[in-house]
């Protein structure tokens, strides 16, 4: 029982980080119908910003400011590089986001330098006792933070005018435009929200270690998560992220029971195997919208 709870806490903690990254992908896709490959760069940039701000300001001030900074970066990227491409093929815009990703990662890598940079969080690898079972504080913090941010996003999309505008634009951009919705504003805001979420994901990914230029690789797991949950489903991104995190930790725990010829890193393959299995059964993901084409 103790082992199960510990595996679940680790899996849900890591899965919360995946969910935050996946939410950024989905929000941009729902608003613009483009898959942004710049999310890994936003993740790295946000974590680097925290390392610079945490010294004078402390972690709990540095993180919101880094979210704001990365949100502004996302907003700026949309205005400068993505908005002029409106109406162009989605594939072309997606390739542009790849270029943006590389540029931002190179700059962030230069900012990291050769010294170890840490986010200065208060949890590190410390454990606490929950219902008589030891769990790592960072995993609890990840779960709580993801829950709060998802609740804020839910309230934003349900109860605010801009949230309603974003939902309208996601459903039908032309109809939303005809009703006076600023679709361009929706595009910018979606990139800003995705940037802020990526900053939180990147910061939590660096907890217990240091911010390195290879940190962005973790964001790649968010790709199978969004395919698994459904490319246009926000709940799917959350559930998919948590599911991937838990399954990954279960496989990692029972790694020694698996045949040796599978190697020692089977858990790394788990997200992609899950994605493959789900795609074979439900090509649009667990919670995605099935596209109907008239011929």
Characterization of this structure:
The protein has 295 residues and is mostly helical. It has one domain (1-221). Helix content is 69%, strand content 3%. The protein is built from eleven helices and two strands; from the N terminus they run H-H-H-H-E-E-H-H-H-H-H-H-H. The protein has helices at 2-32, 39-57, 59-82, 90-112, 137-159, 161-171, 173-178, 183-205, 222-229, 234-253, 266-281; strands spanning 127-130, 133-136. A two-stranded antiparallel ribbon has the order 1-2. The longest helix has 31 residues, at 2-32. The model has no long low-confidence stretch (mean pLDDT 88).
| Rg over CA atoms | 19 Å
Query: Shape, please?
Result: globular
Mean pLDDT: 88
Counted beta strands: 2
Outline the biggest β-sheet.
Answer: 2 strands, antiparallel
Helix/strand/pairing category? mainly alpha
Q: How many structural domains in the coordinates?
A: 1
| SSE series | HHHHEEHHHHHHH
Query: What distance separates the N and C termini?
Result: 54 Å
Approximate helicity band: 55-70%
Strand order of the largest sheet: 1-2
SS strand fraction? under 5%
Weakly predicted, low-confidence segments: none
H/I helix tally: 11
């Amino acid at each position: 029982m103790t082992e199960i709870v510990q595996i679940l806490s680790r899996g849900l903690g890591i899965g919360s980080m995946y969910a935050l990254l996946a939410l950024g992908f989905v929000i941009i896709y729902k608003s613009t119908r483009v898959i942004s490959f710049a999310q890994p760069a936003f993740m790295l940039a946000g974590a680097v910003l925290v390392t610079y701000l945490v010294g004078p300001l402390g972690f709990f001030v540095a993180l919101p400011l880094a979210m704001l900074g990365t949100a502004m970066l996302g907003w700026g990227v949309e205005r400068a590089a993505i908005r002029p491409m409106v109406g162009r093929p989605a594939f072309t815009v997606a390739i542009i986001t790849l270029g943006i990703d590389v540029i931002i990662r190179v700059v962030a890598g230069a900012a990291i330098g050769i010294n170890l940079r840490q986010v200065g969080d208060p949890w590190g690898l410390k454990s606490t006792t929950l219902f008589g079972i030891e769990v790592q504080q960072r995993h609890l913090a990840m779960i709580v933070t993801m829950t709060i941010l998802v609740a804020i996003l839910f309230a934003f999309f349900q109860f605010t005018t801009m949230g309603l505008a974003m939902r309208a634009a996601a459903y039908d951009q032309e109809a939303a435009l005809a009703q006076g919705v600023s679709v361009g504003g929706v595009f910018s805001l979606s990139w800003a929200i995705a940037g802020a979420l990526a900053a939180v994901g990147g910061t939590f990914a660096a907890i217990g270690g240091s911010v390195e230029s290879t940190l962005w690789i973790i964001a790649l797991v968010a790709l199978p998560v969004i395919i698994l949950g459904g490319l246009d489903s926000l709940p799917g991104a959350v559930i998919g992220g948590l599911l991937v995190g838990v399954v990954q930790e279960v496989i990692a725990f029972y790694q020694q029971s698996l045949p040796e010829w599978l190697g020692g890193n089977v858990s790394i393959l788990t997200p992609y195997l899950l994605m493959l299995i789900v795609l074979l059964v439900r090509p649009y993901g667990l919670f995605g919208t099935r596209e109907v084409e008239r011929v």
